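Components:
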Amino acid sequence: MNANEPERGWFSPPSGQQPARLPDYGRPAVRPDQQVWPPVNREPVGSSTQPMPALPSAGPLPGNQPPAPPSGEQPPGAGGPTPPKKGRPVLMGVAAVAALVLAVGLPTADRYIFYKSGQPSDIVHVVSPGQAVSFEHVSWKAVFGPMDPPEGATPDPVRQWMKVTVTRTALDSDGSVLSGTPELAFKDRAGRNWKVEVVQDNTPTDPHEIGKPYTIEAAGVVPKDVADEVELHLRPNTTYRMDTPTEDLMKPRTPEEQEKAKHKDVFVFRR
Amino acid sequence: MTATQQRTAPAGRRSRARRRRSRTPFTHGIVGLALACGAIWVQSMAPSPEDMSAPLTYVGDKDDEVATGRFTVRVESVESARSIGTGEATVTTDQMFLILQVAATSAREPLKLPPPSLLTEEGLRFHATNKVQSMLTLSNKWVQPGMWSKGVFVFEVPPSVIAGARAVFPAPTSALYGDPVIPEAEIDLGIDDAQAKQLVSAPKDVYPLGDKR
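Structure:
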């Protein structure tokens, strides 16, 4: 830059020179007027997300109206306000009842199963009168009937003494050592039980002779009014063997033996 | 009028819905907390194990047939004695013997009644005496359905406690598969003050048991 040059602004062109023209872009196109404020497509009052205090006197706010129910069939308000969800209360009620039933039923069932594990249901075999029945290597026969009260018993018009004679016959070598005394009881139709006590057991302590009958004599007392209808229930002991060695008496039993030791089979003798 | 109703009804419904929506998080928390507190409070009212295993008591008076589910028992008389003749010996006491004549029958199964206990008005409990063998009492006899078995039970008690005393008869229990709720019969012996005085002042010298069946 020379010193003799007249002073000029840095943006002015040098003297004698035309200032460079800006490139000509042409006239700007005239755009149509457009309303920018207030916005043309503004949302209606009340649709704003801005929280606005509700004026109780102004009635319902416009906008966000729930879709009107199809009022073609039914005039609004004629049937009263119908609950919006009808199926839920029923479902809740059913679920509550089911939960209650389960809460009460499951422990009950559990206890019942435990109870039944110790007191299994009987397997009842009814024997026709005067007949013998063969079961687990032994043949059983029982006759019973009224008897006079023994001497010394307090006379009682209500009580009927009953005499029972059970005959057992070993059918094979297993039966001759299965010498357990059967459980005896009188029962009536209503399920009431009476004791039958063994008075005299004529079975030998040695192994029984195969095919020879031995008797067990027993007696019981039942009320006179049921003396004709009582049945004798005989539950044979099918697990006690007299030839079991002493050292085997405490031996743990297999599950099958334990199941058999429950002695579920009962023979019902009638007169 | 109708117009107003039509206008207010939807407003009420909507405001209810709005209220429900607005209280959802907070109120439900409170309700849940209250329910949890209620559940814990209800647990505090659960019966104790002793209460759960307590017997079901059937209450009656002397000379009544008090039926439990398993047995029926009746106290026929109450006597007092200074000593008991047991056949081979005479047992004595420095207190007094209270002798109950009892009849019992069973509902379904033959059973033997365990010895009862005597519950006094102050809540003291006395077992039946062991000075008299149970062979001589009703415990020794089979109690069977449809028939009444009769016998005695003997208590040895101080004379001061017998007024208003009750006898409690428990049901026999099986060792392993026992019923969770066993019954008992609680029988008011009907000893008022006058009768207590008479029982204390005039006991039998010897109450014979051994030869009486």
